[in-house]
Amino acid sequence: MRSGHEANEVRRRTPAKGEVRHPDGLVGLGRQRLSPRNRRLLGVACASAAGSSFWVRRKSAEARELLALCERAPRRLTVHQLSLGDELKALCELRVPVATREPGDGDIEIVGGAVLGLCYPLAALLEAQPGYAFITILSPQPVWHAQVSAPPVQRLCLGDTLPAGVRVKELILMAYAALSMQTFQIDAADAAGVLNVEAARWWQHNPGRIPLSRAPFLADPEHEQGARR
Amino acid sequence: MCPSSNDAAHGRFAEMIIPADSIPGWMPARDARMPVLIGTAPGEAAAAVRELVVVVLGQGAVGRGVAIALARMGVARLLLVDPAIYKPESLLTQPIAVDDVGEHKAGSTARFCKQISPGTRVFYRIGRLEDLDVADFRGVDAMVLATDNLRAEVAAAQLAVHLEMLLIHAAVHGESLTAQVRCFSNAGPDSPCGVCLYGAAEWSLVNRETRFSCEAAADARPAASTSSAPTSSVSALCALAADLATMQVLRGALGLGAPVADTMLEYNGYTHRTVISPLLRNPNCPVEHVTWARASASAPLPSCTPARLLRDAGFESSRRSIFQVEHMCFVATAICGNGHTQPFDRFVPQAAPIGRCRSCRLELVAHPLHAHRRAPEEVLRPLLDRPLGHLCSETPRWVVVQQGERAALFSQE
To answer: Residues of B392-402 as b/e, b for ≥16 C-beta within 10 angstroms?
Structure first.
């Protein structure tokens, strides 16, 4: 699996012709103004945020940063539901090419987006978590990806271990890179990340179809076609 | 092996029992050598020690020394926890005999403690601290942490904060010949914990020490493997750390000298000096500095409703309340392999099978977005007046109700 540093290199590459990116990139997300819709979403979630004041502050900040990420990439990411009841829970729509394949089918089908369930517990601040602890893919089903477990709960594995205090925005960026196959793990013999051995073998035999997109997260998905292989 | 050693290996505390006829008739009285400590009445120190209940986490070079010293003082109860066995190298730093090599540390130490202090009730558990239950700590006066495993250290810090328990952390740094004993009073939200002192180096070590297997992806509570380096030290330094920690237990229990609360005691072999420093709370510490005040439920827990527990805790109904029922998870919605969802509304043990889909009979699992380790009142609202016995798949032994920095712990006697 590529390291985070390598993933950042991928994100920093020169924009392709026609790509529209926010001028600030990912810098200063904390200062990003939220749209009225996202402000309302955050306000409602914060009104029922439970736990110690430290945890409430931290998850509110993580949630705000997640929404700021939506503002920076409005056509890439949308948060539909947000809850800070105990864990930070969010239902997000990520516009990213995702491979699906029915069992026994010959070829894969590429769909244009995924609905992600994000759960960020208090324990994530205190100890390293397994790579599959945070994100599940609610749709499409079944995803054909080495790092995604079989339904009903399609966990997305972002590596063998994620560090304590990992940021929510990083999880989203890692999920984008993994699903678009800009960073991914297809070595079925390496336990660090492979949740679907059959899919890992399939992709090993079809390396020419990787990645599904070369567009960076902040690029407008409308202009993504040209960036695909 | 004692009769209940099976329990110790299966996640429960087992009591070390030795046959009465194997106890020599010449065993001395427990307090035959206890001095009349300055400032105490005759017999006062011995009586106080006879009441002490201490948990010792880790029975290696330091923890075994602490356990043995406490047994020699004749404490009331000792609870020993360690998942490991003694290796040949343990002979170099740990107070063991050749016959102990290959034995479980917790069981071996428990047997030795019981032999030298038959009047002490000694319990042991072959396992990790992270898997202990709150109910195991009822009546405990102090917890001695003697492990280099940072993951266990974080778990111990969180538990001691919740239970307002004196935590004494003993450690050595072999290269600098330093023995260190830190005492955390956990006497309220402003008291420091071990994690308050963590810097970038400690967090980096926490991350490096922890590894998960992807094969455990199906488990809701995946077990991490930790890989801390073995203690490199001279045995005298480990013994010194153990003895200093035991002295802090004694000083804390009897209130001898300056308070031990929230202090760090360090001895250095190069300077040959001892330094005591205060420990301070870090406002950015990620541990929840929330005390679980013990509360009494007005009925047996299975008959109590969440609404009743809120009232018993003295809390108003609020969207900011959360309910934790042991290590169970509240599953509001379940989902099957065909994507059918159905309301579930029960507390279930994590990773336990929860039934079959009404439509297609496939196995149901907790919907990740609708499963809660601590259930918010907002999610429980339609069920607030339903007894816990109906809401839980197993009889609950303890429940925590939390609102912000206040929390109440209800436990079944």
So the answer is: beeebebbbbb
